[in-house]
Amino acid sequence: MDQPVSIQTYSVKREKLDLLYPAVVNLTPYAVGHSINTIIVNTVNQMLHDQGYPQNPLTDVSAYYELKTNERHILSLSLINYAFSGGAHGLTIQKSLTFSTETGKLYALKDLFKPGSNYVARLTAMIQAQIKARNIPLLVDFTSIRPDQDYYIADKALVVYFQVYELAAYVYGFLYFPISVYDIQDIIDENGPLGKMLY
Description:
alpha+beta, 5-stranded mixed β-sheet, 3-stranded antiparallel β-sheet
């Protein structure tokens, strides 16, 4: 069975906090769903903490999520938090999580590729080409992605992205670089999440 997993949205409204976050429901075995939900909640809490909530009484946070993939036993989602603590503008941070809905495993970027494949250099070169093609003015020289760079999976693409200010000015927001799974097919771990998107 390759049904999407059921997702429920939870809402938390407090003073200076408006939060929506997802949880998987009715997933069997129970331990898998519990593991996924625990990671989601811990990530949500860590993001709030990183943005100064509730330590800084001035920090006002709005948080929501986007589902990117929910098929073929893969769940990929983005948690997005906007925090304002005064000043010219607030700051949005994004953290994406990609899970196996069969085992509950959370996949880091390296887990998507065959062991020993030089995925960092390969993805870096593809992103450099996109930066040039899209004429994005950078704040810093982009020499390489981090081995654990932020990413999510959407349809048949690996989307590697950078936080606000990580590469370019605030006005550019998050920079997203979609890479077709077919362009990196030779280095994809066929048993991993991207391998499942190939067929």
